[in-house]
Amino acid sequence: MGYKTTIIEIGPDASDFLAEQMAITFAGNAPEELRSYCFVIEKGELTSPLAVGQPVLIGDQEWQITAVGDAAEKNLGALGHVTLVFDGAAEPRLPGALHLRGSYEGPALEVGAQLVIGHA
């Protein structure tokens, strides 16, 4: 497994980014200026590299990584920070982005939901 965590808080403005098919995660140390836009997660340990084709579980939904930004792995491992982009793009538009494809209208991002990257 690459990364496993739980959503512990949802910023009041996080839905603004979801409307743009994006979700920003941060471990508990999110900067104050971004915190209201974040899905705050428990700090997890990144145990394997992020890669195109890996599955991503959000609650009971499964997505697949289609692109990995240059800084996504470093930021996720160090800060629990990544921008999930639900557009299935083959090229990342942000250095800290993971682009995902799934058959869902929107992600099941809610307090208590698990986020698992690279499950077996």
Automatic annotation (TrEMBL):
Record InterPro entries: PTS_IIA_glucitol/sorbitol-sp, PTS_IIA_glucitol/sorbitol_sf
UniProt-listed Pfam families: PTSIIA_gutA
Origin: domain of life: Bacteria
Entries under PANTHER family matching the protein: PTS SYSTEM GLUCITOL/SORBITOL-SPECIFIC EIIA COMPONENT, PTS SYSTEM GLUCITOL_SORBITOL-SPECIFIC EIIA COMPONENT
Entry protein name: PTS glucitol/sorbitol transporter subunit IIA
Species for this entry: Arachnia rubra
